[in-house]
Design a protein that fits this description.
single chain, alpha/beta, Rossmann fold, 2 domains, globular
C-alpha cells in the first residue's frame, strides 16, 4: 500500500478525509496523491468543458491546503487535478486516475451539497479495479483500521476485499470476520463434501490473528444487522466485497448501496 490517492473538493468533509489518508500514508510509508475533482457550478463553463474562475480558485485553495498538510505530516505528496467539472468528466477521469493507486480514499455522498455526482463512489467501486475506502459523512477517523470487521461469505468479491485489505489487517489490533449466511458459509451447498477450508487459518499464515462470528438475516436487513454489530464491537473499519447493480444477485447490489449510504465507519470496498 505504497501509493494512496485521496479525492478532494472544497467541501466541509475534506479535512477529515485528508486526515485519514495522511494517517494511512504515514503508517505505510506511502506517497499520497491529492486529486481535485468536483462539479462545475457555472453551467456555461460545464458545457464548454472549462473551469470557471470560481472552480479554479477552489482548486488552487485545495492545492495549497493539501501541500501544507502533507508537509506538516512528513508525507510525500503529489497533486493532480481535473481540467474541468462537467459531470461525466468528473466520474470517468476520477475512475481513470484511481487505477494508478493502491488505495483510493473518497467521502460518503451527502445529499444537498452537489459537489460531486451522486454516483461517483459506486462507479469507482465497480470500475476502477482498486480498493475504495469510503469515509463517512460524519465523525473523525484519524487512525482507522485498529479494530477491523470483515464481512465474509467466501464470494469472489469478499475474497478480493479480504486480499486487498491484508496490509490493514496485518497492522490492526483486532480482526473479526462476520459470516453473513449459514454455518457452512465457505461453500453454498451444506451437503457437499469439501476440504476443511478455514479463512482464519489462511489469515494466520499472513500473521493476522482473526476470530469468527456468525450473523443471520436476509438481504438489506442483513446489512442493518452488520452495521449494528459494528457499533457493538467498536469497529473503526469495515471490509467487504461490492456487487454491481447489473449482476446476477440484485439483493447483494442493494446491500452494497445500503452500506455506501448508511455506513458510520470507514468502509473498504472491492469488487
Amino acid at each position: 500500500m505504497k501509493d494512496i490517492l485521496v479525492h478532494l473538493d472544497d467541501g466541509p468533509r475534506c479535512p477529515a478525509r485528508l486526515e485519514l489518508a495522511l494517517g494511512l500514508a504515514h503508517r505505510f510509508g506511502s506517497r499520497l496523491t491529492g486529486l481535485f475533482a468536483r462539479l462545475e457550478s457555472h453551467a456555461p463553463s460545464a458545457v464548454a468543458h472549462r473551469a470557471s474562475d470560481a472552480l479554479a480558485a477552489a482548486r488552487e485553495a485545495a492545492r495549497t491546503r493539501f501541500a501544507a498538510a502533507v508537509a506538516a505530516a512528513g508525507v510525500e505528496g503529489r497533486w493532480w487535478q481535473l481540467a474541468h467539472g462537467e459531470a461525466a468528466h468528473v466520474v470517468s477521469e476520477t475512475a481513470f486516475c484511481a487505477r494508478y493507486a493502491d488505495l483510493v480514499v473518497v467521502g460518503q455522498h451527502k445529499a444537498g451539497l452537489h459537489l460531486v455526482p451522486e454516483d461517483l463512489n459506486e462507479t469507482l467501486v465497480h470500475n476502477c479495479g482498486r480498493p475504495v475506502l469510503v469515509v463517512p459523512a460524519a465523525g473523525t477517523f484519524a487512525r482507522p483500521a485498529e479494530n477491523v470487521v470483515v464481512a465474509w461469505n467466501a464470494s469472489r468479491e469478499a475474497v478480493r476485499a479480504l486480499n486487498d485489505a491484508k496490509p490493514l489487517l496485518a497492522a490492526a489490533r483486532e480482526v473479526t470476520l462476520l459470516s453473513l449466511h449459514g454455518a457452512h458459509e465457505d461453500r453454498g451447498d451444506a451437503m457437499a463434501e469439501v476440504p476443511a477450508v478455514d479463512v482464519v487459518d489462511h489469515l494466520a499464515r499472513h500473521g493476522i490473528a482473526a476470530r469468527r462470528e456468525h450473523l443471520t438475516g436476509e438481504d438489506v436487513g442483513k446489512m442493518d444487522l452488520l452495521l449494528s454489530r459494528l457499533a457493538d464491537l467498536g469497529a473503526d473499519l469495515l471490509v467487504m466485497g461490492a456487487h454491481a447493480p447489473h449482476g446476477l444477485l440484485p439483493a447483494r447490489a442493494n446491500a452494497t448501496r445500503h452500506i455506501l449510504k448508511h455506513a458510520t465507519v470507514p468502509v473498504l470496498l472491492s469488487q
